[in-house]
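Why should sequence recovery work at all? Because a backbone constrains its sequence more than one might expect. Tight turns favour small or flexible residues, buried strands favour hydrophobic ones, and helices have their own preferences. The token representation captures these environments compactly. In the example below, the structure is given first.
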């Protein structure tokens, strides 16, 4: 009998509180997707080529973030369970009146929680497998240089076990809290468990305006500190800034719940349609609204800020890949004599059986000399190149040669991409008086970059062994994989946290509004009896939900805009920030997830009140 009741209640809960189940499923999906990265084929390739241990850093941070995310999701699930328990007080009271003891009621609720948890875990893992497959394929597509047959998806059983363990502990805690709640409940409290609006404090309009202005002052001060000192100056004033920002956000929501109703009373539109009903319903939860709106606003700030910053920094790293390493291979052959110079650089690879014509699309060679200030008259340069060699390299690139004369005493300097750092271009007669540092040979590969890179590496090892030349090679692919490792580190961590915060904000609002909609069912029934048409009641419900969703979003966007101004100053130190791209992607995620929760809340709330009207 108890098992049948559990199944009936779960089916009803999944229908009435689909948002709760969807949130659990999405939480499991996110947790598995990012913890399964260790099994991705592209991560194995990155670990082989990256020189900075970035793959290990990615996995360490994922483990740290996963622990943090599990705490956030545990809090979200406990919060949602608390709402569901309050909503079911009359039902639980009915069980006690029918003769069920506390132990049976506790076992009933534990069974429901266990069944919902198992269903959410199964559906979340199934969705997580699909998302992990898509993330693996997307990651491979992000790499410009990778084996064409690299993509091979594997199920990460370690991630499956980790996800089951973490969420098993979370649901165990939920079941314990549920049992404690039932054991402490009184029958009279359960029977009279219907929700009532809080008393609306009748503040004067001047006090509400004063609170609003005080909140704006706190926010303005916090913004000024942030923009003046930046994000990285973490000291006592930094924490004061956070405190002022949080306090200002709370005061604004607190004052809105007080004077918004008073401001609109004198306007004719207040009495139009069901506007009066909507505003009073929203203002009827004064303390609940201002506290939850503050938390949700901060969650939205974190979600939008982290996502936008990770995408913006990701684009900056991507643009730096080509500019930092313009050549596929740079060889340096060190020498001490002025007459050292191989006749044809391409011949270096002939002993290894590598065809230069088929492997390289362009080869350029020049001597890099030590700078002597007494000869050149300049200091602060890493090397010197003769004018004739500079012109020859420019001709190979199809770029204009140097036409202006170079005075011996004051040579011109150029950042021309010949070698790392700045080099000095001087006349040939000046260059002949300088000691040779090394011969620099830049190669550009022909065809698929990864295959050519592997072939050249093998050939270069053979060349160094057979010729005994002192060669030092810098491969673009090594720099590329280092930068791509940084790119994935930033992107994965940003998306992981950003999506979790966004889901948490949307879920908290949705559950809150669904619970309040169920409590307001009798009020909507009364509106129906008073003659309010169906379309007017539906519109009132949608506006009530929209008010709850849009107010914290509006202030959260303002917070994010200021925060991104400070973050971009840091990102600009690395390269150009594509703010438009980052903003569009963040807006897309916001529309999909936050807008999806709004839609589901409207549908669920209407279903909750429809039965009585």
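From this structural description, the recovered sequence reads:
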């Amino acid at each position: 009998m108890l098992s049948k009741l559990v199944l009936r209640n779960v089916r009803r809960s999944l229908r009435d509180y689909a948002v709760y189940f969807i949130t659990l499923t999405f939480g499991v999906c996110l947790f598995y997707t990012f913890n399964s990265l260790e099994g991705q084929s592209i991560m194995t390739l990155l670990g082989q080529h990256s020189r900075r241990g970035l793959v290990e850093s990615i996995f360490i941070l994922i483990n740290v973030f996963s622990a943090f995310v599990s705490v956030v999701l545990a809090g979200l699930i406990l919060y949602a369970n608390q709402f569901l328990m309050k909503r079911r007080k009359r039902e639980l009271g009915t069980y006690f009146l029918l003769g069920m003891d506390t132990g049976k009621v506790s076992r009933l609720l534990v069974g429901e929680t266990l069944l919902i948890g198992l269903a959410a875990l199964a559906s979340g893992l199934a969705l997580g497998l699909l998302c992990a497959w898509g993330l693996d394929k997307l990651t491979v597509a992000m790499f410009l240089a990778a084996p064409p047959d690299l993509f091979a998806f594997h199920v990460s059983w370690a991630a499956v076990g980790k996800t089951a363990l973490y969420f098993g502990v979370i649901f165990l805690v939920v079941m314990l809290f549920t049992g404690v709640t039932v054991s402490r409940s009184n029958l009279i409290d359960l029977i009279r468990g219907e929700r009532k609006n809080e008393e609306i404090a009748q503040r004067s309009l001047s006090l509400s305006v004063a609170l609003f202005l005080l909140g704006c002052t706190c926010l303005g001060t916090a913004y000024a500190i942030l923009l003046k000192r930046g994000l990285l100056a973490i000291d006592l004033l930094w924490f004061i800034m956070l405190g002022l920002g949080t306090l200002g956000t709370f005061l604004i929501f607190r004052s809105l719940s007080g004077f918004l109703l008073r401001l609109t009373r004198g306007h004719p539109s207040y009495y139009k349609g069901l506007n009066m009903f909507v505003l009073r319903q929203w203002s009827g939860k004064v303390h609940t609204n201002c506290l939850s709106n503050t938390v949700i606003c901060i969650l939205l700030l974190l979600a939008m800020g982290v996502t936008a910053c990770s995408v913006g920094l990701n684009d900056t790293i991507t643009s730096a890949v080509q500019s930092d390493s313009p050549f596929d291979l740079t060889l340096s052959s060190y020498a001490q004599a002025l007459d050292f110079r191989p006749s044809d650089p391409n011949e270096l690879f002939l002993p290894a059986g590598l065809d230069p014509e088929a492997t390289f699309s362009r080869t350029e060679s020049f001597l890099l000399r030590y700078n002597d200030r007494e000869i050149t008259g300049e200091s602060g340069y890493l090397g010197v190149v003769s004018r004739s060699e500079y012109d020859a390299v420019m001709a190979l690139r199809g770029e204009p040669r140097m036409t202006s004369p170079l005075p011996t005493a004051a040579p011109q300097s150029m950042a021309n991409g010949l070698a790392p750092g700045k080099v000095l271009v001087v006349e040939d007669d000046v260059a002949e008086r300088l000691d040779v540092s090394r011969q620099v040979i830049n190669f550009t590969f022909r065809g698929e970059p990864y295959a050519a890179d592997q072939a050249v590496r093998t050939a270069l090892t053979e060349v160094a062994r057979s010729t005994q030349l002192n060669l030092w090679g810098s491969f673009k692919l090594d720099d590329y994989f280092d930068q791509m490792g940084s790119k994935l580190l930033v992107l994965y961590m940003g998306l992981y946290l950003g999506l979790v915060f966004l889901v948490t904000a949307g879920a908290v609002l949705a559950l809150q509004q669904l619970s309040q909609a169920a409590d307001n069912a009798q009020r909507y029934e009364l509106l129906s009896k008073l003659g309010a048409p169906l379309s007017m009641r539906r519109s009132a419900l949608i506006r009530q939900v929209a008010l709850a969703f849009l107010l914290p979003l509006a202030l959260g966007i303002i917070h994010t805009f200021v925060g991104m101004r400070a973050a971009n100053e840091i990102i600009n130190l690395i390269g150009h920030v594509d703010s438009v791209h980052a903003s569009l992607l963040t807006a897309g995620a916001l529309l999909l997830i936050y807008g999806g929760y709004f839609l589901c809340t409207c549908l669920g709330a209407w279903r909750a009140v429809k039965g009585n009207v």
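A few observations help interpret the result. The chain is about 70% helix and 5% strand.
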